[in-house]
């Protein structure tokens, strides 16, 4: 018997243990994705004295997971932060878990995001900005979503959502904050130029979430707290805080279960791969090395989207 057939058999066996809703049963027949990689996100330094746990976007392994370029779990206290730096060719998505973060860009766009708030920033052709924690520090995630070649040079844009603007699904011990995409019939209002799903999930003890993910999309999870069992019931991998789990592209659903007696919290992030050439240096992400060189030239010469960088310096990092 091949592996696929074996998994299907065990799925039917385990599903007969509870009452079956025929509609949901049909949607769950597609296979659960297995776990392809697991990695522990160690702390590393970035910006000015800032500590981040990087899972996607490391220098040697998991340098990207198309369309994702980076996931940093940051926990930063003043005077550390991310002083003036440029971005071109992708989006930065900042989601707060604790404390607050202030940002300011060269176009006069500024603000502060607190617990549960989201800043979805499309850098497009160019942003120069500064990101610093509030007085009591800030903890959260920054995800970098690559843009398709056709979108890399679009005008910069922000989508800023307060926690109260982000919809929440609640069902059978599963609470899912729908940052992007859809979960349990609840849809996010965020516009994703690169099709993306981003869920902040809390599983009560014993809770299971089976989440449909397009079979062609890359998907991964990161555990915020507690312990989560990932994958098909007969092949579960248990991982705890600070672990990143990358799913194989071998099914139309991901399955997460809390087999412990405590709540568990994790994010599930998935996206449609761009399948385009990638050229990348630090905060510039393009398709060719020539475009990277051009991006740094444009930044240096304050041109082609970086005009407003000419005389701009952030008020942060000046002691006021
Ligand atoms: C960066 C220098 C930087 N991870 N997580 C060089 F400061 C940064 C950068 C960040 C960042 C910012 C926040 Cl708010 C959270 C982060 C890196 O700003 F990306 C490069 N390349
Ligand atoms: Fe930045």
SSE arrangement:
Layout: H1 3-15, H2 22-27, E1 35-40, E2 43-46, E3 50-54, E4 68-76, E5 82-87, E6 90-105, E7 110-113, E8 118-122, E9 127-146, E10 157-161, E11 168-171, E12 174-180, E13 182-183, E14 186-187, E15 196-203, E16 208-212, E17 218-225, E18 227-230, E19 237-240, E20 243-247, E21 253-257, E22 264-271, E23 279-281, E24 284-286, H3 289-300
Antiparallel strand pairs: 1-20, 2-3, 3-4, 4-9, 5-9, 6-7, 6-8, 6-9, 8-10, 11-12, 12-15, 13-14, 15-22, 16-21, 17-20, 17-22, 18-19, 18-21, 23-24
The structure holds ligand FJE and fe (iii) ion.
Please supply descriptive tags for the structure shown above.
320 residues; mainly beta; nine-stranded antiparallel sheet; 46% strand; disordered N terminus; binds ligand FJE; binds fe (iii) ion
Write structural notes for this entry.
It contains 3 helices and 24 strands. It has helices at residues 3-15, 22-27, 289-300; strands at residues 35-40, 43-46, 50-54, 68-76, 82-87, 90-105, 110-113, 118-122, 127-146, 157-161, 168-171, 174-180, 182-183, 186-187, 196-203, 208-212, 218-225, 227-230, 237-240, 243-247, 253-257, 264-271, 279-281, 284-286. With 320 residues, it is mostly beta strands. Strands 2, 3, 4, 5, 6, 7, 8, 9 and 10 form a 9-stranded antiparallel beta sheet that branches. β13 (182-183) and β14 form a beta hairpin. The chain has one domain: Jelly Rolls. The chain is globular and about 60 Å long. Fe (iii) ion binds at residues 82, 85, 87, 92, 129, 131.
């Amino acid at each position: 018997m091949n592996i696929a057939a074996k998994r299907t058999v065990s799925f039917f066996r385990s599903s007969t243990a509870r009452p079956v809703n025929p509609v949901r049963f049909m949607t769950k027949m597609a296979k659960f994705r297995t776990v392809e990689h697991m990695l522990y996100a160690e702390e590393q330094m970035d910006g000015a004295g800032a500590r981040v746990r990087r899972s996607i976007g490391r220098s040697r392994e998991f340098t990207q997971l198309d369309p994702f370029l980076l996931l940093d779990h940051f926990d930063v206290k003043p005077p550390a932060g991310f002083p003036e730096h440029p971005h071109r060719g992708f989006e930065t998505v900042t989601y707060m878990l604790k404390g607050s973060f202030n940002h300011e860009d060269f176009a006069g766009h500024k603000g502060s995001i607190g617990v549960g708030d989201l800043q979805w920033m499309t850098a497009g052709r160019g942003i120069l900005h500064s990101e610093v924690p509030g007085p009591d520090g800030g903890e959260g995630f920054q995800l970098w979503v690559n843009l398709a070649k056709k979108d890399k040079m679009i005008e910069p844009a922000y989508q800023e959502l307060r926690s109260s603007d982000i919809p929440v699904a609640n069902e059978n011990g599963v609470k899912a904050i729908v940052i992007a995409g859809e979960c349990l019939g609840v849809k996010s209002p965020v516009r994703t130029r690169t099709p993306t799903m981003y869920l902040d999930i809390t599983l009560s003890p014993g809770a299971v979430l089976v989440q449909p993910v397009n079979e062609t999309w890359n998907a991964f999870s990161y555990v915020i707290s507690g312990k989560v069992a990932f994958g098909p019931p007969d092949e579960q991998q248990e991982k705890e805080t600070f672990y990143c789990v990358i799913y194989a592209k071998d099914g139309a659903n991901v399955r997460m279960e809390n087999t412990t007696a405590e709540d568990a919290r994790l994010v599930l992030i998935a996206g449609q791969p761009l399948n385009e050439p990638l050229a990348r240096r630090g905060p510039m992400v393009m398709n060719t090395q020539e475009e990277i060189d051009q991006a740094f030239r444009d930044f240096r010469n304050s041109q082609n989207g970086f005009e407003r960088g000419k005389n701009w310096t952030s008020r942060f990092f000046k002691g006021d």
